[in-house]
Amino acid sequence: MGQNLNRVENLYDKVAREYAETFSGEHEKKPKDQEILHRFSQEIGDRSPVWDFGCGPGQTTKYLKNLGVEISGLDLSEKILEQARTIHPEIHFRKGNILELKFENSSIAGVVAFYAIVHFTEEQVGIAFREVFRVLKSGGIFLFTYHIGKETIHLDEFLGKKVDIDFMFFTTDFILGCLNDSGFEKIEIIAREPYPGVEYESRRAYVFAIKPVVRKSP
Ligand SMILES: C[S@@+](CC[C@H](N)C(=O)[O-])C[C@H]1O[C@@H](n2cnc3c(N)ncnc32)[C@H](O)[C@@H]1O
Questions:
Q1: Ligand 1 site residues, Cβ closer than 6 angstroms
Q2: 59-66 vs 31-44: helix crossing angle, rounded to 10
Q3: CA–CA separation, 145 vs 132, rounded Å?
Q4: Mind listing the pLDDT tens digit of every residue in the chain (218 residues)?
Q5: From 2.60.120.10, 3.40.50.150, 2.40.50.320, 3.60.15.10, which CATH number describes the 5-205 domain?
Q6: Does residue 46 contact residue 71 with C-beta atoms inside 8 Å?
Q7: Continuous H helices in 67-171
Q8: Which of 64, 77, 102, 159 most suits a substitution to test ligand 1, by most atoms within 8 Å of the C-beta?
Q9: Is-contact 15 158, C-beta < 8 A?
Q10: Would you say 19 and 12 are in contact if contact means Cβ atoms under 8 Å apart?
Q11: Rounded to whole angstroms, how far apart are CA atoms 108 and 124?
Q12: How many CB atoms lie within 10 A of CB 16?
């Protein structure tokens, strides 16, 4: 059984304004985020389109747009998308579900997903990775982040609002196995310690994974 998506959507609808106020400028305080996003922009070059899945208020979308990436954002929560569109009117944002993507096979050059899997069960992570693999073009890049660990953290309060939601942590072995099972290659997992006073104090990981290039027979 997966975590109920209505519950996730309702959470971000409820905290949309507070989430945008809290997290909009976060990459400025996180040098490793910046290094990783610069690397992504260099590796993706002028390939397009690129999508930010689970984009929230669009801080990562905007960071990459500023680096010249042709990027759009997708999220489950209409209210958080309203925040994203208000803050970044020049960027296209649309509603969608990572677990059931309305994109053609092999149609996207790159996908970023910062902390978009934090509410997924292990089964849903597998579904999400298979969906991302399906929509990526051959040679496409998948960059995502997660909290490292085994725990599930239940919150009754988040950003000053009453909520009822689980945040999932994942082991690196699990993530690696799941990406391999989905067909990704050249998987690189870069772990870091938390920035004290800047973010929730969990170890985090950035992951680069590539959809294999299909070689055409002569
Ligand atoms: C922890 S927030 C991360 C937001 C932003 N990427 C960031 O780094 O701040 C998780 C986001 O993923 C979105 N999300 C969760 N499940 C989703 C799904 N199945 N499809 C699309 N978006 C989803 C939520 O609405 C929320 O905006």
A1: 5, 8, 12, 23, 54-56, 60, 75-77, 80, 97-99, 114-116, 118-119
A2: 60
A3: 14
A4: 566 899 999 999 999 999 999 999 899 999 999 999 999 999 999 999 999 999 999 999 999 999 999 999 999 999 999 999 999 999 999 999 999 999 999 999 999 999 999 999 999 999 999 999 999 999 999 999 999 999 999 999 999 999 999 999 999 999 999 999 999 999 999 999 999 989 999 999 999 999 999 877 77
A5: 3.40.50.150
A6: no
A7: 78-87, 122-135
A8: 77
A9: yes
A10: yes
A11: 21
A12: 22
Provide the whole-model pTM: 0.96
Q: Is the bond leading into 49 cis (omega within 30 degrees of zero)?
A: yes
Check residue 199 and report its DSSP letter.
Answer: S
Length of the chain: 218
Sign of the alpha-carbon dihedral angle for 114, 115, 120, 121: positive
All structural domains of the chain with their residue ranges:
5-205
Instruction: Show the tokens assigned to 151.
Output: 């725990």
**Residue 92, Cβ density class (10 Å: 0-12 exposed, 13-18 middle, ≥19 buried):** middle
